[in-house]
Design a protein that fits this description.
The chain is an alpha/beta fold. The protein is globular and about 40 Å long. The chain contains nine helices and six strands, in the order αββαβαααβαβαααβ. The longest helix is centred in the middle third of the chain and has 17 residues. The strands form two sheets. A four-stranded mixed sheet has the order 3-5-4-6. Helix 1 packs across helix 4. Helices cover 39% and strands 10% of the residues.
């Protein structure tokens, strides 16, 4: 893992390519340590470009999952990106840069971090970027994208059911650069339905911005 942010190295390398405009395949087997930010020095890795569309056809949706550790790492990455300015307030989301409790909303994090990074990794979801073979779902998380990402992740981590290992969380599980509308065209056959059918646990995450049931 990358120190001191503890992120998966493939993830850090993808973010480096996004922030510096470097083709993902051009940084394979480089010897110097490359800088993600002033607080994150990365080690050398081999990067494999993924085919997001093909991968999401071959890996069942109920395996598009992340771990509790992945979510904790993601929170640290968002915080680092906010500090470095690669995640910034917008007219629709004028979040407080100094806030450590709520953070930028999921829409902002998706457009400024998830989409550009996973595009560089081959238009795969964040979950399959980290775990290309997938992880069997035993926790389904539902939430509202208007919430702050720190608030959301902290509530998930503090409410994580004992014994569960892998969570389906739409912002990280679904391929945000592919055709989401096509994925959910048939609700019964959607990734949400398949993951929910398999998961023995579900978390409904409230937030301080709006009622999750008013979406």
């Amino acid at each position: 893992a990358c120190e001191p942010c503890h992120a998966p190295l493939l993830l850090c390398r993808a973010i480096l390519c996004v922030t510096e405009g470097t083709p993902l395949g051009a940084v394979v087997n480089s010897k110097p340590l490359l800088r993600l930010s002033t607080a994150c020095v990365m080690q050398t890795i081999d990067v494999m470009m993924l085919d997001g569309a093909a991968l999401h056809r071959s890996v069942p949706p109920e395996r598009w999952c992340v771990t509790r550790k992945d979510l904790a790492q993601f929170r640290r990455l968002v915080r680092s990106c906010v500090a470095e300015g690669s995640i910034a307030p917008t007219t629709l989301d004028p979040f407080d840069l100094t806030d450590e409790l709520i953070g930028p909303c999921v829409h902002t994090v998706n457009s400024q971090l998830i989409q550009p990074v996973t595009a560089k990794a081959g238009n795969v979801s964040w979950a399959l970027m980290l775990h290309p073979d997938g992880l069997s779902c035993d926790l389904f998380i539902t939430h509202c994208w208007q919430e702050g990402i720190y608030e959301f992740i902290d509530k998930v981590l503090n409410s994580w059911p004992h014994g569960t290992r892998h969570a389906y969380c739409c912002m990280l599980s679904n391929p945000q650069n592919l055709d989401i509308a096509d994925l959910i065209g048939s609700p019964r056959d959607s990734p949400f339905a398949k993951a929910l059918l398999l998961a023995p646990y579900m978390l409904v995450i409230p937030n301080s911005s709006t009622s999750i049931y008013s979406r």
